[in-house]
Automatic annotation (TrEMBL):
Protein name: D,D-heptose 1,7-bisphosphate phosphatase
GO CC annotation, single: cytoplasm
Statement: the UniProt record of this protein carries the keyword Nucleus: no
Site note Stabilizes the phosphoryl group, residues: T52, K104
Source taxonomy: Bacteria, Pseudomonadati, Bacteroidota, Bacteroidia, Bacteroidales
Amino acid sequence: MRKAVFLDRDGTLNSDEGHYYIYRAEDFVLNEGVIAGLKILKKHHYLLIVVTNQGGVAKGIYSEADVEKVHEEMKRQLKLGGISIDGIYYCPHHDTVQSCDCRKPSPYMINQAITDFDLDAKQCFMIGDSDRDIEAAKRAGIRAFKIKKNNSIVEICKKIVEDED
Ligand SMILES: [Mg+2]
Ligand SMILES: [Zn+2]
């Protein structure tokens, strides 16, 4: 079984400063410390899996094609830093339009990835900036760390690998 770190997207990997939703590639800016932090995790053989709520799709603010474009941009920027993402899961729904099983704080996306990647939940972590991220992780039975919106994840990444050593 493998191990992974689950990563929220907006407010964790990239800045959502000044935006309610990020749906244009040009608005995608990695937060400070993301490359350094993810390098530490990769070095310790963690898979990196993004789990993100994109309720703006259900609200008609942007399309799934826009989400894909932002994800291409995310992967491009991370690749420049030598980082590859192993999986991306997103929920395009929103409670105000139609309820669903996948939107965080549901553990659905995390559980799906645990199955898809044959992960050992005991060796998995979540990093996010919202209570919803933490709640989803708890419900999936994995440990979670909350950062302050758009703050560096480096210290948490160090902590994750230290706990293991
Ligand atoms: Mg967030
Ligand atoms: Zn959903």
